[in-house]
Amino acid sequence: MDEDSLVVAYDAKRGEPRKGGNVKSEERGDCINCFKCVAVCPTGIDIRNGIQMECIACTSCIDACNEIMRITNKPKGLIRYESENGLKGKKKIFWKMKTNIYLGLTIFSVIGLFLFIFNRSGLDITVLRAHESPYQVLETAKEKTLIANHFTLNFKNQSTEKIEVDIIRSEHIISKEIEVIAVTLPVTIPPGQAKKNHIFIKFPKSILEGRSYHKFILHIVTKSKERTQKYRKEITLAGPV
What is the mean pLDDT of residues 39-46? Predict the structure, then answer.
């Protein structure tokens, strides 16, 4: 706040000296010292003492004072929205450098918000490893051990239309003998709603290449009336060393 900021203010130049005491009638200001502005103030301050921290700018004092001015046949606005420079009779400057900065920041924020809304993904995907053991050894054959990982997929439809979500098997998955088991997929999700699904990924131990983990790309596809979208989600397959 500076000297050009609009606040609820009392025009002391016009209102002083107030009625009462030894003030001659011809020297009196427009304030008749009725204390209406104090009586209606919810925080109990006297706005005539200047700008105060307790003022909540409810303008009750403005309405009360304007009513008294009407009764006494005096111009309204003894208490009004005004700047400090305005009360001093100086030129009001509302368009300053900081105003341009605030306006620019507001415009960029609004543009950024619209870009985020229009460009955000129609599907929010969260992949979590199940709470049980990180992997299970399903069966062991000669020179071949199969391992299974259990994951929970949380899908949230952020679009405005109903979509169908499914997992696709790429040639890369088939070549490495990785099997994605998703009994509950495909699933249809209404707009603005979320659904949880469980998947199991079965793979031979040989793809770990002597390590306890392997990076794997899960391919997810969504279909709606207007378009089809594909998503890639990286997960980590775990197994014994």
Answer: 95
Backbone angles phi, psi at 204, to 5 degrees: -75, 150
Mapped onto helix, strand or coil, the DSSP state of residue 70 is helix
**Would you say 185 and 238 are in contact if contact means Cβ atoms under 8 Å apart?**
no
DSSP string, 98-144: HHHHHHHHHHHHHHHHHHHHHHS-SEEEEEEE-SS-S-EEEEEETTE
- Which three-class secondary structure state does DSSP give residue 225? coil
As given in the structure block, the two tokens for residue 66 are 């304007």
Spatial CB neighbours of 159, under 8 Å, sequence gap ≥ 6: 122, 123, 191, 224
Q: Locate all alpha helices (DSSP H) within 120-227, ordered by sequence.
A: 171-175
pTM: 0.55
Tokens of 172: 């890369």
- pLDDT at 170 (0 to 100): 62
Report all structural domains of the chain as residue ranges with CATH numbers, in order of start: 7-91 (no CATH), 123-238 (2.60.40)
Distance CA 11, CA 30 (A): 10
157-186 pLDDT, tens digit each: 988 899 999 988 765 565 567 888 888 889
- The mean predicted confidence, pLDDT, of the chain is 87
Distance in angstroms (rounded) separating the CA atoms of residues 183 and 167: 11
